[in-house]
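Before going further, learn to read the protein records used in this course. The integers have meaning only within a learned vocabulary of local backbone shapes. The record below shows the convention in full.
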Amino acid sequence: MYAKTKIDLEEDIKTKYRELSPNLDEKSRRAWAATEAKTIGPGGISIVYRATGITYKTIKKGLNDINEKPSIKKWIRSKGGGRKTLIEKDELLEGKLKEFVESSTRGDPESPLLWTSKSTYNLRDELNGSGHTISQRSVSTILRKMGYSLQGNRKTQEGGDHPDRDEQFKFIYRKVKRFQKENSPVISVDTKKKENIGNFKNEGKEHYQKASSPEVNVYDFIDKEQGKVAPYGIYDLSKNNGWVSVGISSDTSQFAVNSISTWWEKMGKSAYPKAKKLYINADGGGSNGWRNRLWKTELQSFSTRTGLVIHVSHFPPGTSKWNKIEHRMFSFITKNWRGRPLLDRATVVNLIASTKTKNGLIIRAALDENSYEKGIIITDEVLAKVKLRKNKFHGEWNYEVHPLI
């Protein structure tokens, strides 16, 4: 046998508490918590507190209870008695705290465990300043219930860490909120990795009857007739729906902007009939990269054709996984077609379009059979004709493209 670590003990107690909690009243809850703390010994109260959220004061009261001589009758608070929690008294509190935390969320965005770079003291001050009376300890308790923890001096492996990384995230966050408040469209765009078409192995497992799973090719040599496809996605952050253009040609800026244009005609225009502007969040490289001149000239054509002012923000270097489309749309597409060979282009389109989630995600998809030329050179003269307005803060990442009159 090995000695259990504090983490092991916390997990054990957390599991017990989850199973026992519905059957415990106030007195038995503190008695159980005190018994667990007493069994652990030194440091037990802290471990039980972290695992259950039961306060130090309550656990110590439980220790006093179990050390006292039993009496015939003890008062137990009736159901619904006692003070209401802060969240019950202030219905807007949790939402406001989440708003303050979201702009500083760190860690892996696909993980259920997130952490915030803001201290609980700073969050307390921000909440108090916005009219929500709360203590630092209560902030900590609510954050824990929301799945957050405060972790100092820890970074995820995101590649290069630009000095203005966090400021750019805050810039995007504030602008997204402003657009959503005005009911103007905000989209996250990116190209999903290219997929081989044919009877090839697709990672993941699906349920099949015994010995009836599909047999696929041993080698992943590209099928010369069917080739590969490049799905370019558009995710609407406000409506929780998206569009995917399945390209059969090169992944160029023309393909990217044509996909956005198709989304606007098929979904965006009807969802935002009064829209005068569109906000695009994109990675910093590839067909929609901030250095890509063709990307800007194609956006100019799109802007002039639709009359929309196109606002664009790019994510800092090495942070592409923070693009919302990655874990709000593409990840579900991957799950939907796991373990299934992508036999032909129609299969890809159908599997993408049939992707749904419990949160109501809806995706539409279509094949883009256009041929896009690679290596198009945009001269300084052509680029100068783009009606481009750069933001004062990192104008290379944040800019607007206005229609040509």
Remarks:
- DSSP finds 14 helices and twelve strands in the chain.
